[in-house]
Description:
By secondary structure, the chain is mainly α. Helix content is 57%, strand content 2%. It contains eleven helices and two strands; from the N terminus they run αββαααααααααα. It has helices spanning 3-15, 42-50, 72-90, 97-110, 114-128, 133-138, 140-154, 163-175, 185-196, 203-219, 235-248, and strands at residues 21-22, 32-33. Residues 23-44 are annotated as: Disordered.
Amino acid sequence: xxxLTVDALKLHNELQVGPLEISAGARKDTQMEEESDERxxxxxxxxxxxxxxxxxxxxxxxxxxxxxxxxxxHKEICAVLAAVTEVIRSQGGKETETEYFxxxxxxxxxxxxxxxxxAVAYLLNLVMKRVPAPVLKSKFSDTTKAFxxxxxxxxxxxxxSALRWILSCLATLLRKQDxxxxxxxxxxxxxxGLLSFTVHSKPKVRKAAQQGVCSILRGSDFLFTDDALSHxxxxxxxxxxxxxxxxxxxGEALWS
Length: 256
């Protein structure tokens, strides 16, 4: 409900006209010009940059480099990060990974455009790897549902820009859960959802799902405890899925 979001979105829309040039100097003196040389107001540019260039969380350091990119997707990521950062600040937050996780999850549920959804998913993919495990455990149910909803909607969509980042997020979420959680049907359902995308028609989606599955089976936190299991509980399920896919592709002779 602050002026920040309005300013950030206004600037974001103006940025779509063309590439920007950012001069050196302090943030308050930063000048931004569109290709048409139409000067943006100092107040608007300052507000936007204040949530991007001075973001104190090192997780998003690489995002700051996107500012000079001509990519619309990169600009969208910058806009979302700036807006979310200012919202956290307006509420007295300290810009921790947990705060960004909460803010981005809330944003993911309300954004409408596919571009914005992809930007939020990308930022979530970055920050979730640094969110404390207890937080991801406590928010497992709600977070899984949000991810599964997006996966379901984009499974057969022509545009699946957010899908690969959501798959990576889901893998991170599952990797942080306790071994007991893998006895729940809801957990296996989410994992089967991830498995199904390992044979998706789009290479980037397949790769994200395959890497996610490997990270879960080989890198789940409980596999590195003193009383660790010899293998992940989802190993058998994964093997059955792979055999079924091979057989459906005409590879029955391999198992005779």
